[in-house]
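Example record

The entry below shows one chain as it appears in the dataset: sequence first, then structure tokens.
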Amino acid sequence: MKANPVFDEIGSHLARVQGMRNGVELVQVGENPDRVLLKATATKYSGRMKILVISDIHGNAEALRAVMDAEQDADHVIFLGDALLSGPQPNETAELLAKLNPDICVIGNHDEEVLDPSHYKKFPAEWVALNDWLIEQLTPESVELIKTFTAEGQYQLAGLDMYLHHGNIDKSIGAAWPDQPDECFLSMDNGSGSPFVLFGHTHVQFERRIGNTRYINPGSVGQPRCGRLHACYGVFLDGHYTPRQVTYDPTPWLAAIEKVAALEAYPEFRQWHIDGLLNGFGVGEREPWVRYAAEGYC
């Protein structure tokens, strides 16, 4: 994606062409390195157009494979971040994601941890051990894939105007959960005016409308949190969005986590991961996930 940068002045801003992917040109606009905006403009649109939206795979290759099998006719793909950590199938997931070849991949907080492990070094010891081991297993190709992920920003794809964000907003504001105040959602797109703001991170499949903007979380592909073992995602079909889910066989994931050597010293932590996947409460059967499950969220 980041091939031969070309610089050009656009008004008072500096733009850098990041490269091409599936006929989509990625252009970086703005000089502030802390708030880079990217714009992707599709070069073609014909007939019935299907855009697959996925987020939060977390090293669960089986879940991603199930989504890919269910949506083989997707014309374009958007990934909203958190690809590999902290699941037991990081390289398999990277290979599948590379095969899927999303038009846009927005970097998530766990993707940043792959590139800079210092982000998680203050986590509890069991998490540090797990992430260190997983990163040690990564192939150069898996790491290079993460390096292609781009920043949050305003994009256009197949005629669809949208703002893409992983969803990890300032903790002082709160988390973008279904029952949070509007301010949590408005903080994501900085008044972009886009009709759609797509985000992940909170692993709950839902939508919030504020004014003329639809804030959409497609849910998590690889780590369910609302009490159901399935992969969540979304689809735009000719501009109309619908949430979707697909079930899958977790057996290969279970076999993979048994092989994670770093967890030999933390058997209870290993079992916590296993229980979380199988019962659908990925980070524990607790609030707010229990409440969301009772309310029917995925």
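Notes for this example: The two ends are 33 Å apart (CA to CA). Residues 125-137 form the longest helix (13 residues).
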